[in-house]
Design brief:
Nucleotidyltransferase, domain 5; 37% helix; alpha+beta; binds zinc ion
């Protein structure tokens, strides 16, 4: 962006060009008649910056982007950028906005960034766990518990020693995780819940709570961690400030009673295999009602419609997607997997739609019933402005292919094949078309075809 343009926009928005991130402004390529090829930022950075062109020849660079577009394709090494097949007006877009619009919310976020979300913050407060106990964990995570180490840091002069083992000074990690007293509790709890607790750090301790278990068992694990931390702190205070001596046994009994209380009032549900843990903790099982369980089927379309299932996958920040086409008999017409690279799951889901519709256009399939397990991504069919800026041109192109599209949501249990294909995308190179499904997916494919129901537990 040229400085005169920055000043003009700064004036319109009421900001100072020196303090506002005008380098964030970026242009998508539609016609390219108003975009300077060299000075405008249409590639994420201007070509001047990307190619480090000497200042002396900047004035001679007057080409516009339209000069390098021929038949909808960019005649550039960066031809991965997709040009439109039908003319579109040029427009300025806001790079860091999902819908390309600069809203006051985005501007405020830039000037005053939102606080960082703490992953544990929303997890530790549960209706089945007394807030006074969760509060101890909250204080620990914020470094607010008045241990000797913490008091010293705030200027209190004290002689510190662990009240339990009398071997070392009292720090957070020692008191709650590494002291023989605490270790004994974590070991005992791990045996009781059939889950080894990682006591390397508090984050690792919370990370030990299993995610793929029934909701009642998850509540019990969380309650066990919180009640144990609370129990250790109470035992320490009792040793320091009262005549009573809190033994390891009495602390365990207190923790066990508290876990049992939380497990019984939890609103979570259990499964049959949880019986051992629930019995050991004296917690009554909260079984699911049959009506809570949903049966999910994959349904073949009516001819001449083609059913398309897609999915996106994110591992860390690496995205991939995949999908497959099936006809009215449930027979495979083809599948694809794509390794996207660093991106978001929303991008992966929408890119899967885009890629799938391009394949449909190439194969002459004009009636496509698209099914996905992402309700948010499916909104792009209702509201086109949700399509990410980088996919604008591609989306514009597939919309002009004359494909009739029905979109619908399906639970993940009914989208198994696409789910596995999306996961496969992480190990492939670029975009791969498959005319035969990999062996690992064939069982699910035939289960889908035979109308086999999959249960979805609440
Ligand atoms: Zn100790």
């Amino acid at each position: 962006m040229t400085s005169s343009r920055s000043q003009m926009i700064a004036g319109m928005l009421g900001f100072s060009a020196g303090t506002f991130p005008f380098s964030y402004l970026k242009c998508p390529i539609f016609k390219g008649t108003k975009i300077n090829l060299w000075t405008d930022n249409w590639l994420g950075n201007s070509l001047l910056e990307l190619l480090q062109i000497p200042l002396a020849i900047h004035n001679q660079l007057r080409a516009i982007v339209a000069d390098i577009i021929a038949d909808g394709a960019l005649l550039l090494p960066a031809a991965a950028l997709m040009g439109p097949t039908a003319p579109l007006l040029d427009s300025l877009v806001w790079l860091h906005s999902s819908n390309s619009k600069l809203t006051s919310k985005l501007a405020l976020n830039f000037l005053k960034p939102a606080v960082v979300n703490l992953p544990w913050a929303a997890v530790i407060w549960k209706s089945c766990i007394p807030p006074a106990h969760s509060f101890i964990l909250w204080c620990i995570m914020h470094g607010k518990i008045p241990t000797d180490e913490n008091l010293r840091r705030r200027g209190c002069i004290n002689v510190s020693i662990c009240s339990f083992c009398l071997r070392t000074d009292e720090s957070y990690e020692h008191l709650f995780l590494h002291c023989p007293f605490a270790k004994n509790i974590w070991l005992w709890l791990g045996g009781l819940l059939h889950t080894p607790f990682d006591i390397l750090s508090f984050a690792a301790l919370l990370g030990s709570i299993p995610q793929n278990c029934s909701s009642q068992i998850h509540d019990i694990h969380l309650a066990a961690v919180i009640h144990s931390l609370h129990g250790i702190w109470m035992a320490r205070n009792s040793l320091r400030f009262t005549d009573q001596t809190a033994s390891l046994h009495s602390t365990k009994v207190h923790i066990l009673v508290a876990i049992s209380f939380s497990g019984n009032i939890s609103t979570g549900k259990c499964i049959v295999s949880d019986a051992n843990i629930l019995d050991a903790l004296l917690v009554s099982p909260h079984n699911r009602r049959v009506s809570d369980i949903l049966m999910v089927y994959w349904k073949a379309p009516l001819a001449p419609w083609i059913k398309l299932n897609t999915d996106g996958s994110l591992i860390g920040s690496h995205a991939a997607c995949g999908g497959l086409f099936r006809d009215h008999r449930g027979s495979l017409l083809g599948a694809f997997v794509c390794n996207i690279g660093t991106s978001t799951v929303f991008y992966a889901e929408v890119y899967a739609f885009l890629l799938a519709l391009e394949y449909a256009a190439q194969n002459g399939w004009r009636n496509v019933w698209l099914e996905s397990d992402s309700t948010i991504a499916l909104l792009v069919f209702k509201n086109r402005s949700l399509v990410l800026v980088l996919l604008h041109n591609g989306w514009h192109n597939v919309c002009n292919q004359g494909i009739q599209i029905i979109s619908s949501h399906v639970f993940r249990e009914g989208n198994c094949c696409a789910y596995f294909l999306a996961n496969m995308g992480h190990t492939t190179q670029g975009n791969v078309w498959l005319s035969v499904l990999p062996q690992t997916i064939q069982t699910d494919f035939f289960l889908d075809r035979s109308g086999f129901p999959r249960s979805r537990l609440p």
